[in-house]
Amino acid sequence: xxxxxxxxxxxxxxxxxxxxxxxxxxxxLTALLGRNGTGKSTLLRAIAGMERIMAGDILIGETPVGEYxxxxxxxxxxxxxxxxxxxxxxxxxxVVALGRAPYTNWIGRMQAADADIVTEALATVGMxxxxxxxxxxxxxxxxxxxxxxxxxAQQTPVILLDEPTAFLDxxxxxxxxxxxxxxxxDGNKCILFSTHELDIALNMCDDIxxxxxxxxxxxxxxxxxxxxxxxxxFAAESVAFDPVTRSVVVKR
Amino acid sequence: xxxxxxxxFIAFTAAVTALFAAxxxxxxxxxxxxxxxxxxxxxxxxxxxxxxxxxxxxxKAVAALxxxxxxxxxxxxxxxxxxxxxxxxxxxxxxxxxxxxxxxxILGAPVLGFAGNAWLASLGIAGAAWIGxxxxxxxxxxxxxxxxxxxxxxxxxxxxxxxxSAIVQILQYLSAEEALKSFVVWTMGSLGDVTSAQLxxxxxxxxxxxxxxxxxxxxxxxxxxxxxxxxxxxxxxxRARMTILLSTTLLAGSVTAFCGPIGFIGLAMPHVARTIFxxxxxxxxxxxxxxxxxxxxxxxxxxxxLLALPVNSITALLGIPIVVWVVVRNRNxx
Lengths: 252, 334
Known about the structure:
The complex is a heterodimer.
Chain A: E1 2-11, E2 14-24, E3 28-33, H1 40-47, E4 55-60, E5 63-64, H2 70-76, E6 77-80, H3 92-97, H4 112-124, H5 140-153, E7 158-162, H6 170-186, E8 190-194, H7 198-204, E9 207-212, E10 215-220, H8 221-227, H9 229-233, E11 239-242, E12 247-250
Parallel strand pairs in A: 3-8, 3-9, 6-7, 7-8
Antiparallel strand pairs in A: 1-2, 1-4, 4-5, 9-10, 11-12
Helix pairs in contact in A: 4-5
Chain B: H1 2-25, H2 33-41, H3 47-81, H4 94-112, H5 118-144, H6 150-174, H7 177-187, H8 196-215, H9 217-223, H10 227-232, H11 237-259, H12 265-277, H13 282-307, H14 311-333
Helix pairs in contact in B: 1-3, 1-13, 2-3, 3-8, 3-11, 3-12, 3-13, 4-5, 4-6, 4-7, 5-6, 5-11, 8-11, 12-13, 12-14, 13-14
């Protein structure tokens, strides 16, 4: 679904990822790993067509992202950013309904079909009971689900999420990833999300994309564990990665 | 939910109509509502009263109605665009730009030595103010096409605005007492000097601004989630920004040109509308804000007339408590 061809991204003279080749498949949940400042968000934004590509190309379907108009991109890629959105006086149903913006007319009039899609999106993320509540009085986990429902309502084959687990507690992180896996498998979507949760990524995702500057590796989770890339990446003075338990251990 | 909104719209429309009638009736000479009605409909009444109502009072009330709704709607647009509850129509320098235009016209002409210029004289205060406001916003808009971050645009707008204000101060410092006084009177804001010829200019400009504002309703709703979300949903950010900035120039710029800088309506009234209608959707909020703005400025105009004070001080005294309340309430939530 998403194909990186000899892709180089970065800012100015600073190269983050160089000459990356990878295919992110449809019907697959892919986690994007990498340390802080290695270009995870930049890569996600580049795929969404919001960041300049230094060299190479990103193809979604058969088309390079540079050739997408904003309107067409909105029908192909939905995004969930790290921004915490809390709008008073806007009900969850209306927030999710904004995801229908690429389909509605000039003033955003919702048809019956649009309203059904919004209801269904809320039900899919388990937030049907929150439709008439406002986000300013909800927890981070609940708000995150509403923003995912908004992305679902956009009905795109690709969904990109930038650190969706960041503000969540442990049970919520696992539940969120279960939800994303279900959406990818049952909905045949191509879902890519960046995260720092090694255990969640390795245990719950199909594929792992890993940025080890300036290279990017993409393999299925099992192969990634065996490859040794993770050990190298997280090698630091005080911690190490244990491939048997698939977790980080503190060195003594 | 739907019915509550409908009832509120009916109530607000009725309130604006009543305030409009009252505004026509109130003044240095109060005119009973019956006679106001007779004068407007052309029924038989005292010719002097008919003249006052038709030629003076009606103009003022229409000006208050248009100015109030235009300023409030442009304030709403700025608050959504900059995602800042304290943004108003003047954050990008509409007011200071207009002041510069007027200052150059009233104060600058003698200082710069072209006082007798017939072309400048015919331009009038309103024209000078409009050109000043439009030029300032054009500068901000030109900068905004090259800058990604909306907060940078806000800061640049405020800096341009402060720079322009400094020039105005220099002009004030250098000018003669009499010219200074007429400038200061303009800065106090007035709905009284709007003539029917000016109204004929104000109306189409505000109507064009309103049309652009209505076209911006969907973009504004998308911008509630911030620029990157709006863009991911297919919004052309540059076009949306330009539409909203142009709409604000036409709405607030024109009103400022003809009525002087009227403060706080644009800043405070969107919050009043949000609180009462409890709906951030601009399809409801924009007309609600327009009605709230119109009602508030009619009320302020009446008060100003009754107490014989400049309208700007009344809008400030009404608006400041509202703004303080907004800040305190936002603090409590966060």
